């Protein structure tokens, strides 16, 4: 998949900037007579919205009637809104955001040029200042996908699925999540208070001290027990090259097995996912299927030249493992190439076409397909169920131990020695759904 432009954005610039719907409505009125009680509907004096001739002619002829309400609302805001002048750029961005929010499947979102720059810095391991978390900006609220290892977000106890309701007491309802993310960024050493909504709990405040965040794509070590360990943090531009280098360095030390840690890896580019999986699979093996809206399927196969096709292997996953992480882990699990250890993954099984808008106006990501594992498992919202289910608990944090990594080592040794796999906790019933090829 082309990393920046997968689908041509087929609309004129004016239509791109103006099409859409706002995510919140308002009651229009011109004068409210005071009667000592709340006004009824009849108390509102109606105003007559209009569309300027130049607005009508700037709209393509076949949608002029459709877009009349948009222009009418646009003009009413500029006449009636209490705080003038109105920021036209924010209105336009809000319209695009609202339009994308009407789409029900997958992640669909807009990023302006500044937000897009931040996304690329997240993904490609560049330094920035903030709280250190991968986030989902496609919904009503910015949602944590995963805190980065050792980051302020992790130290503050933020978890996958946490929604940011407010920042420093300011309600973020109706604020585009990409803009919320911009507000979370800030200088090293400054403190921010996030109001968090967590499933099953009442909203609560979390104070996070921002820091300079460095996100290396790959970390690796040769353990004293003879096991090679490699952690892949994101599937950025150079993930395949850096991972291959790390694996080559480990293989030169003759490890007895390999652990690939994809915990809190929120994904990245599809082609990087294919390239990473190819390091562990024979040539010409299906890594992932894409299933499009018309029912057609496209397969993506391993590209060959893998350098770790035979070494015993375990993959670590958790609730922060998403997207390309699930592509790699799902393929390795389906082929029996590796055992998965940890807890159920995030369940992000959709493919986004990222369309760059002209004149440095940002980008629009639109869900164009869903992906399925080689055995036709649909992962969207279900995630991958590990072979050995092990939670990371508060007791582990207090004891400064990594029970999931310990279980991965135990699992790998069992695979090497031909003994039963460990099961440290009850495993949930798999919920991913088989899909037949049309």
Account of the protein in words:
By secondary structure, the chain is α+β, with helices and mostly antiparallel strands. The chain has helices at 13-18, 53-58, 64-80, 88-101, 113-123, 152-155, 177-184, 239-251, 270-278, 324-334, 394-399, 403-417, and strands at residues 109-111, 128-130, 133-136, 143-147, 163-167, 170-171, 191-197, 204-209, 211-213, 218-222, 227-232, 257-261, 286-292, 297-301, 313-317, 339-342, 350-356, 363-372, 377-378, 388-389, 433-434. The strands form 6 sheets. It has a 6-stranded mixed beta sheet with strand order 10-11-12-15-16-20, with helices on both faces. Strands 1, 13, 14, 17 and 18 form a 5-stranded antiparallel beta sheet that branches. Strands 6-5-7-8 form a 4-stranded antiparallel beta sheet. The model is unreliable at 1-45 and 428-438 (pLDDT under 50).
For the structure shown, list the relevant keywords:
single chain; 438 residues; alpha+beta; Pdz3 Domain; 2-enoyl-CoA Hydratase, Chain A, domain 1; six-stranded mixed beta sheet; five-stranded antiparallel beta sheet; 12 helices; 21 strands; 22% strand; globular; disordered N terminus; disordered C terminus
